[in-house]
Design goal:
- The protein is an alpha/beta fold and 244 residues long.
- The strands form two sheets. A seven-stranded mixed beta sheet has the order 3-2-1-4-5-11-10, with helices on both faces. It has a four-stranded antiparallel beta sheet with strand order 6-7-8-9.
- Helix 5 links the parallel strand 4 and strand 5.
- The termini are far apart.
Length: 244
């Protein structure tokens, strides 16, 4: 009988090896540079194993990284950043940040609109009044295009793995199941991501403390739309947020 593996970090880190983290970091920093707001503390939500954080440390002196998984955050101890394990819907900080970012479709792990509302309000509560919050999301066309290519298998440091990817259009859930074989034992872990419609984000934000300043096709500064595959949102705080 299969059971959850204690940490998928080595597999995740290996499967993400083809990502151009340097270019991704440059894109995030270009957003930071183009938005007019006072500079200060920076927060990354859903940092995973910290690969992107390692590149952004070249740009941000005061960077704090977070993830819900302690194993993921502690995977690469060479990354010189403060770490906090926390739930993104209940960010446990009393001090505010001038710039908050989240990458790798982390937002898609919030499976209900209620969780999304909690997340946006939690982020707004720790964002400076003139601060900036940016994140990327995966839309349906991305799942339809890449679900087949994510079916793969191999081995990492003696750990055998098999990934099965499936997107349910009816549920609008993208499933990624990882089967890991270690010491003749089989472990299994399923990740679920909700693939919201493009306008769902605007609807949820309408009743939040944040508003969309820009919405781009990811890695560009071209306006996104419902046919986009991946979208980069750039949010600011509403001026009358105390009344919301």
């Amino acid at each position: 009988m299969s059971k959850p593996y204690s940490s998928i970090a080595p597999i995740y880190n290996y499967l993400m090896r083809s990502i151009d983290y340097n270019s991704w970091a440059d894109y995030i920093y270009s957003i930071y540079e183009q938005v007019d707001f006072p500079r200060g503390k920076v927060l990354e939500i859903g940092a995973g194993t910290g690969k992107l954080s390692g590149h952004l440390l070249n740009h941000f002196d005061d960077l704090l990284i977070t993830d819900i998984s302690m194993e993921m955050l502690n995977f690469d101890k060479t990354i010189n950043a403060n770490r906090v394990v926390c739930d993104m819907t209940k960010l446990p900080f009393s001090k505010n940040f001038s710039f908050i970012y989240s990458c790798f479709d982390s937002i898609n792990y919030l499976l209900t609109k209620r969780e999304m509302e909690m997340f946006f309000n939690s982020a707004a509560n720790i964002l400076n009044d003139n601060g900036c919050f940016t994140f990327d999301v995966s839309l349906e066309n991305n799942s339809l295009r890449y679900q087949a290519s994510l079916n793969r298998s191999g081995s990492v440091n003696g750990i055998k793995y098999e990934q099965k990817s499936y997107y349910s259009q009816k549920e609008r859930i993208h499933y990624n199941t990882f089967k890991i074989i270690l010491d003749n034992k089989i472990f299994e872990e399923t990740h679920k991501q909700k693939i919201y419609e493009f306008f769902d984000y605007f609807e949820i934000l309408e009743n939040s403390k944040l508003y969309v300043e820009n919405c781009f096709n990811s890695f560009t500064f071209e306006n996104a739309n419902s046919n986009s595959e991946r979208v980069q949102f750039i949010l600011k705080k509403k001026k009358n947020y105390d009344n919301i």
